[in-house]
Amino acid sequence: PVLDMEDAWVSVEGPVSIVELALEQKRIHYPLVEHQFVLCTILYAIMRFSLKSVKPLSLFDSKGKNAFFKDLTSIQLLPSGDMDPNVLSVRQQFLVKVVSSAVQALCSSQKAKEVSEEELFPFEKGKNWPTLAADLAQYLQISEDVVKRHYVCELYSYGMDHLGEE
After folding, report:
1. Residue 154: CB atoms within 10 Å
2. Confidence of residue 121 (pLDDT cuts 50, 70, 90)
3. What distance in Å separates the CA atoms of residue 9 and residue 161, rounded to the nearest whole number?
4. Which of 5, 35, 63, 151 makes an SS bond possible with 130, Cβ 3.0 to 4.6 Å?
């Protein structure tokens, strides 16, 4: 970008402006940032729902694991469209666990009306975990329909038929 400066500022001496420093920075590789975001979302879901026996790095193949430890400005080989069926199965099981835990938390918060879930977790206000799991399914190359069907089945199994119908 072209930065026009007024004549009065041209002769000013001092530290380099923040704009010039920002322009000198290397460009990031956005798919690598998305890859990191997926890992952060997975870790947050594991923490939020206290999911036991989930190994976050087992949800990624070798290329995906290696990409986590590279500089965000480097162009890395990310996982391609061909995935190992075992990795896809582990990913699907993980997403199903997240949806099940989210529905269980929703059901328990509605039964215990004295303390709402929003009071326990105020920073999650408006966060819809099943929808987030369906969005995450796209990144993890899992069919969204599988996640959505499991969500509806969980709603019916917890007696929340009105939500399941929606």
Report:
1. 22
2. low
3. 67
4. 151
Residue 126 backbone class (left: φ over 0; alpha: ψ -120 to 50; beta: rest): left
pLDDT digits (tens, 9 = 90+) for 35-67: 999 999 999 999 999 998 899 999 998 888 888
Say how far apart CA 47 and CA 123 lie, in whole Å: 14
- 149/6: higher pLDDT: 149
Q: Which amino acid, 87? A: V
90 Cα distance to chain centroid: 17
- The CA-CA-CA angle for residues 166, 40, 21, to 5°, reads 125
DSSP 47-62: HHTT-TT--GGGGS-H
DSSP string, 71-96: -TTS--PPP-S---HHHHHHHHHHHH
Residue 5 identity: M
The confidence score (pLDDT) of residue 128 equals 86
* 113, pLDDT greater than 70: no
The percentage of the chain sitting over the pLDDT mark of 70, rounded to a whole number, equals 86
- Judged by DSSP in three states, 105 sits in helix
The domain limits of the chain are 25-75+83-111+124-163
